[in-house]
Prior knowledge:
Blueprint: H1 10-16, E1 20-23, H2 43-53, E2 59-62, H3 69-76, E3 80-85, H4 88-100, E4 101-104, E5 107-110, E6 124-127, H5 130-135, E7 142-147, H6 182-199, E8 200-210, E9 213-215, E10 218-220, H7 222-231, E11 235-245, E12 268-275
Parallel strand pairs: 1-11, 2-3, 2-7, 3-6, 7-8
Antiparallel strand pairs: 4-5, 8-12, 9-10, 11-12
Helix pairs in contact: 2-3, 6-7
The structure holds S-adenosylmethionine.
Residues 37, 39-41, 63-64, 66-70, 84-87, 90, 129-130, 148-150, 168, 170, 174-177 line the site of S-adenosylmethionine.
Amino acid sequence: MENRLNELNGSQWLYWTNSIYETFFPPDRTHHLRKKHGAMKPPQLMAEIVSFFTKKGEMVLDPFAGVGGTLLGAELAGRRALGIELNSCWVDIYRQIITEYREDNGELIPIAEAGEKAGSLSSEMVNGDCLEVMARFEAETFAAIIADPPYGCNHGPTGFKKETNFKMNSGDRRDFGNSDDYQEFLLRMEDFGNEAYRVLLPKRYLVLLVGDRYHCGEYLPLGYMVADVLRKTGFKWKGARIWWNKATQRPLKPYAINTCFIPNITHQNILILRKE
Ligand SMILES: C[S@@+](CC[C@H](N)C(=O)[O-])C[C@H]1O[C@@H](n2cnc3c(N)ncnc32)[C@H](O)[C@@H]1O
């Protein structure tokens, strides 16, 4: 039967349906500048995701592009991608990186020798608010939307500041990470879902990486809450993969030992939704 979604064979497809997704991607090898961003994703991981949800040459959108994990992954997978990022310093880093690397046989190789052809990475990143930028795109433009949005908010009495280990958000009010509380964050995700639904091709996928939280003494299944909000925008929630990158596992923290159970949340949810 013709494969309508990707270029994997049957066993590769089957392997990818396992809801547990363990990887061993060492901390980013592509460029030291990417490490300035506290939440970049391994391009190799993103290449695997892009490869499942698209065919070669198709166009992927990452509306929360950071320092380009999805865009670099798309390059590794032989796809094209467009990123949108609110914070201009991440856009500048991404634009510098793509002048210094080229893709070769599924690897990003530094352009070391003078005279070697530069700029073979063509996926572009635009600076702006994804809600504003996406509103300018025509309907049914992208073959997949693959992103990891900021996970929550940083202010207010119900904010996530305490649970956030790093500061990656800007001072910009339009930054989803600057939502006052998680209710506002979820409303913004719903606005995002409406735009994502419009610009995605029919029968194609929105894939989001969203971590859960432990918040005010309770487990907050933020990934599942985001998926539920996106269902309201028309997407069908097809599943989740629980991603654990063994290579970057930090030592477990001794929360409330001998008193009560508090989890060390070491996984992220990869939410898979389809426009049907
Ligand atoms: C978790 S990071 C993405 C990291 C990215 N996957 C990578 O590998 O570098 C989320 C990004 O979304 C950006 N962001 C937040 N609100 C945004 C908005 N309204 N429009 C566009 N980007 C936004 C943040 O600046 C942040 O860089």
